[in-house]
Design a protein that fits this description.
Layout lengths: L1 H10 L5 H26 L22 H12 L13 H15 L1
């Protein structure tokens, strides 16, 4: 009901409906994000919630970097290893890490 009255007040102003919709979507996204973070914080920790960054892997003429990583984790962490992703562009990775850090704070 409160939303309806706010829309009525804005309808008489110079704001367009698209501006109102953008504000509403932005508010809802914030609420959903907060709820998701709250859920994850309260839930028991699982291996699929974590990431490990591995850097400077020595080259091997017989195996690719992907094969080396997979072999290492399957041998040493077989109960919790799920998957891996090789990243070749560190700039993109740095942006993702920075974005994740901001979301956690």
């Amino acid at each position: 009901m409160e939303d309806f009255h706010a829309r009525q007040e804005l309808a008489g102003s110079s704001e367009t409906s698209s501006d109102i919709d953008k504000l509403s979507i932005s508010n809802e996204y914030g609420k959903v994000s907060a709820m998701r973070l709250q859920f994850l914080a309260a839930e028991k920790r699982r291996p699929d919630q974590f990431s490990v960054l591995v850097r400077n892997i020595p080259p091997d003429p017989d195996e690719s970097v992907s094969e080396l990583v997979e072999h290492f984790f399957l041998v040493n962490h077989s109960n919790t290893y799920l998957t891996h992703q090789v990243v070749y562009n560190a700039n993109r990775l740095a942006k993702l890490v920075k974005k994740e850090s901001r979301m956690q704070n």
